[in-house]
């Protein structure tokens, strides 16, 4: 296992620390980089994975997390993303239970702690990969490369590309996957601790435990399965000390056939067989869970994968790899989303960007050459295992085995960055060894690099604190990304600044003319601004591009209703319901259309459907009470109102409508009770004061009527009818005063 001291290690420009000091240092660096994200909001994908995910709620059966995907959608559904991460969702649920609700601080703090723990464990991982596997009498790992492993761990702890995984709550999947990945690797190493089982070359028990931890990593994120590849490479290269280049050369030219008896005696085939069996079992289980079908992605998610020309497709894939490598080398230009035109496709070999993928492969071939052919065994081992740790965890995201749903995703580099940090630490050590006279310069450059990384982490994690800062930061990085403009516009619209949002929605549609969600949201804003003709055009185009876009059909129906195109509006509503059968808001709007057309029975049926699908649909309940009241069906209106209040006991609008009905039924005392209850909930409701005054007026409680008329007029001087009723009451009071003896 080559347990000699690593010759370049003492040249690393870092102090030699004790194991405890080294781990504390790495933990402090990790916390320092990302601590300012602890009180951030839920941002971007957090809304779907956390806020809108019913699997986090205590009322949802715990068994649901084993049947649903990461976003709370049933895995059998066609709309499922097929991302099966039940252990990650379980930690979200625990966060929810501990905090007593959706309070983001607890979610963020746990992410930061996980990153610190992972960074500390990286010291042991790097120590084994660089200096070999060795244990002391107590079973603790001996570090033969203390400075190099410390430097690599610090570089990992402070790498800015990790910000998405740490500062974004959904990055929990990457963090937990990395944690179990490390534990799986370290327990696999434990199998070779002679103190555990002196009669065997390795412990089957620890190999099985490693496989179980690999399964746990896979239940946090699919990438976890790649630890088996790292374990296998570690076994071949470090445990069995196989020289891959020499072995390949002998097999290829059939000269001096290698003696594999020693390797067989060490149990390599048995271990590889166990890992293969475990890996295949996990793959089969995952395939069955997915419903034996991959997730469906669209061209905007990953345009290169839809390119028919295989040469162009391969060129673009390799360009994506070069961009990922650039993010590791220079993590200054970071973006929450790299799709929708952010990275334009390379269409021909004459595109100047081809230079980047040629440069990438030149560097990789150079590293592979050194890893295989260098006469220095320590260099061969370090470079080979560094490349394995860089490449193997990235394989699920490389589009080779299956299509992925993104162009570039910074979060998938979380594990691969460990391989990069190992290679960078080796390079710094090698340069320090070769150029001893420039030691001070090397020290200054290293300090500058670490300082820039820490500052960049702090700046980037601050941008992840809110959606406004996150989305705005992407405008300068990916100005051609329609999704960036869409998200900036949506954030502005959610904040009430619809005028500013229009500009960004229009730019999103300009950059991506078939961006249906941008057209839908822009159409909604124009509808509110009463620019109905353009709104109709946008929404009509949206449903023509995506005929099953139920929300756009409903919004189109609302616009057509406003334009008095009643037949077209009715058809649009029914199209929306056809594509989304459980659509209470659409039934509500359909009921409003029928009410406008005086089709009262149809309106009541539509609103009843809305309340059946969504029992707390306040507007549908209230409209039923009002319609029955207006059509003289006071008894039925009372029944509906009472039924609604059983489900919504604190809804002041329904109380108000029911109080009006009871007043007309001359149930004055009960009507008064509902009016007063509604006013306790919403004391500034002018209409409620006004109608209560009318009730008192009819009831003969004139002083109380006068009081509430005055309160109503104070809150709303223009309240329709209230001024006339008040004047009528004053005349009556004057008459009573003059007629008194």
TrEMBL record:
TM region(s), chain numbering: 112-133, 145-163, 169-189, 201-219, 225-247, 354-373, 385-406
Top EC category: transferase
Record-annotated DUF1736 domain positions: 293-365
GO cellular component: endoplasmic reticulum; membrane
Record keywords: Endoplasmic reticulum, Membrane, Repeat, TPR repeat, Transferase, Transmembrane, Transmembrane helix
Membrane topology: Multi-pass membrane protein
Domain of life (superkingdom): Eukaryota
Gene Ontology terms describing biological process: endoplasmic reticulum unfolded protein response
Compartments in which it is found: Endoplasmic reticulum; Membrane
Pathway the protein takes part in: Protein modification; protein glycosylation
UniProt-listed InterPro entries: O-mannosyl-transferase_TMTC, TMTC_DUF1736, TPR-like_helical_dom_sf, TPR_rpt
Pfam families: TMTC_DUF1736, TPR_12, TPR_16, TPR_19
Listed EC numbers: 2.4.1.109
One MF term in the entry's GO annotations: dolichyl-phosphate-mannose-protein mannosyltransferase activity
Protein family per UniProt: Belongs to the TMTC family.
Name of the protein this chain belongs to: dolichyl-phosphate-mannose--protein mannosyltransferase
């Amino acid at each position: 296992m080559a347990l000699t001291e690593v010759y370049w290690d003492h040249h690393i420009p870092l102090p030699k620390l004790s194991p405890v000091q080294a781990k504390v240092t790495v933990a402090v660096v990790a916390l320092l980089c990302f601590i300012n994200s602890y009180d951030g909001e839920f941002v971007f994908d957090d809304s779907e994975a956390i806020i809108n995910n019913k699997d986090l709620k205590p009322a949802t059966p715990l068994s649901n997390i084993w049947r649903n995907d990461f976003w709370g959608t049933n895995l059998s559904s066609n709309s499922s993303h097929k991302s099966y991460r039940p252990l990650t969702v379980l930690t979200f649920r625990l966060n929810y239970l501990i905090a007593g609700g959706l309070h983001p601080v607890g979610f963020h703090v746990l992410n930061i702690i996980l990153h610190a723990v992972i960074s500390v464990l990286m010291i042991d991982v790097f120590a084994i990969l660089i200096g070999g596997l060795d244990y002391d009498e107590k079973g603790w790992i001996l570090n033969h490369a203390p400075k190099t492993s410390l430097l690599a761990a610090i570089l990992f702890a402070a790498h800015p590309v990790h910000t998405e995984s740490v500062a974004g709550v959904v990055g929990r999947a990457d963090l937990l996957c990395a944690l179990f990945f490390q534990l799986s690797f370290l327990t696999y190493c434990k199998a070779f601790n002679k103190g555990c089982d002196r009669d065997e070359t390795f412990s089957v028990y620890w190999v099985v435990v490693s496989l179980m931890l690999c399964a746990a990593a896979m239940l946090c994120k699919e990438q976890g399965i790649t630890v088996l590849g790292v374990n296998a490479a570690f076994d071949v290269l470090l445990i069995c000390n196989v020289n891959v280049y020499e072995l390949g050369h002998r097999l290829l030219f059939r000269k001096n056939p290698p003696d594999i008896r020693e390797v067989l005696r060490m149990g390599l085939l048995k271990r590889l067989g166990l890992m293969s069996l475990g890996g295949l079992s996990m793959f089969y289980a995952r395939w069955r869970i997915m419903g034996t079908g991959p997730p469906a992605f669209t061209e905007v998610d990953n345009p290169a994968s839809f390119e028919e020309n295989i040469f162009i497709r391969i060129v673009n894939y390799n360009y994506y790899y070069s961009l990922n490598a650039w993010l590791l080398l220079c993590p200054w230009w970071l973006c929450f989303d790299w799709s929708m035109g952010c990275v334009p496709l390379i269409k021909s070999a004459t595109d100047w960007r081809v230079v980047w993928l040629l440069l990438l492969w030149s560097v990789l071939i150079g590293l592979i050459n050194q890893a295989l052919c260098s006469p220095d065994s320590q260099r061969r081992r370090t470079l080979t295992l560094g490349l394995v740790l860089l490449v193997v965890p990235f394989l699920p995201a490389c589009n080779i085995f299956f299509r992925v749903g993104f162009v570039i995703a910074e979060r998938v580099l979380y594990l691969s960055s460990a391989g990069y940090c190992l290679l960078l630490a080796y390079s710094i050590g090698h340069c320090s060894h070769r150029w001893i006279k420039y030691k001070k310069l090397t020290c200054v450059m290293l300090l500058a690099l670490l300082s820039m990384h820490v500052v960049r982490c702090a700046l980037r994690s601050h941008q992840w604190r809110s959606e406004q800062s996150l989305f705005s930061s992407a405008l300068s990085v990916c100005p051609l990304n329609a999704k960036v403009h869409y998200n900036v516009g949506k954030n502005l619209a959610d904040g009430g600044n619809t005028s500013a949002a229009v500009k960004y929605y229009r730019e999103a549609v300009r950059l991506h003319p078939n961006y249906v969600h941008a057209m839908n949201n822009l159409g909604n804003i124009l509808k509110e601004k009463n620019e109905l003709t353009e709104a109709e055009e946008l929404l009509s185009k949206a449903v023509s591009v995506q005929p099953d876009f139920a929300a756009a059909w409903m919004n189109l129906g609302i616009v057509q209703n406003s334009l008095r195109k009643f037949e077209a509006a009715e058809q649009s509503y029914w199209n929306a319901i056809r594509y989304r059968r459980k659509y209470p808001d659409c039934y509500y709007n359909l009921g409003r259309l029928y009410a406008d057309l005086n089709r009262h029975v149809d309106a009541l049926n539509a609103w009843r459907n809305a309340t059946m699908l969504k029992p707390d649909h306040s507007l549908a309940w209230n409209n039923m009470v009002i319609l029955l009241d207006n059509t003289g069906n006071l008894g039925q209106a009372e029944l509906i109102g009472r039924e609604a209040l059983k489900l919504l006991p604190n809804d002041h609008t329904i109380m108000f409508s029911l109080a009006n009905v009871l007043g007309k039924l001359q149930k004055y005392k009960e009507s008064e009770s509902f009016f007063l209850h509604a006013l306790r909930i919403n004391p500034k409701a002018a209409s409620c004061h006004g109608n209560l005054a009318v009730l008192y007026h009819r009831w003969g409680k004139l002083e109380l009527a006068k009081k509430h008329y005055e309160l109503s007029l104070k809150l709303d001087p223009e309240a329709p009818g209230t001024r006339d009723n008040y004047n009528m009451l004053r005349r009556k009071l004057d008459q009573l005063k003059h007629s008194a003896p």
